[in-house]
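Trying the structure run again after the queue cleared.
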Amino acid sequence: MTILRRVALFAVISVFTLGLGGLALLDGIEMLAESTNYSGNDRTALLGLGALTTAGALVPIALWVIAGWALFVKRQTWDW
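Done. Tokens:
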């Protein structure tokens, strides 16, 4: 696999993984920030969902790092 194909594949992977991770991260942070306007069970729910969403946002970002490592460091090839 040529370097150009590796870069193109990594660009496609980046659009989806970083896009999804970034949106989830921003959504989680927004939920955590909005929890200050609530009290009681509503606040607890927003804090829990915000923390879980923020933590879940790290999964696509971690997949992006692994994909970059596999493509450029390990030089993994996939037969089409």
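Residues 3-73 form one domain. Worth checking whether this holds up in the mutant runs.
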